[in-house]
Amino acid sequence: MKRWDGLVDDYLQRGEMLGLSAATLYGRRRELERRGCWLKRRRPRVHMEAVDGAWCIEYLRSRTRFHAKASVAGVASELRCFGE
Fold it and tell me: What is the mean pLDDT of the chain?
């Protein structure tokens, strides 16, 4: 999953070039690193090509228990903006 870390770095560099604030980039990095750690702990190991909508829904379920709808929507939005 080293490829995941490279994708996150590239995504955040593009955000930096677009002029996003340091706080926004920090929040996005934190959420994407959480998702990366979650994917890395899955057994059997998940390949990047196999990550689809079902994996995203499972992650959101595990990540957003006891959170408000707005918080869940924020996490979903960040994941959606990250791309495929």
Answer: 88
pLDDT of residue 18: 95
Structurally, how many domains does the chain consist of? 1
> Tokens 């994996």 appear where?
55
User: How far apart are alpha carbons 79 and 83 in whole angstroms?
Assistant: 7
**CB-based contacts of 79, cutoff 8 Å, min separation 6:** 31, 35, 56, 59, 60
State which residues form the domain around 55: 2-82
Question: In sequence order, what DSSP letters do the residues of 18-57 get, joined into one string?
Answer: TT--HHHHHHHHHHHHHHHHHHHH-SSPPPGGG--HHHHH
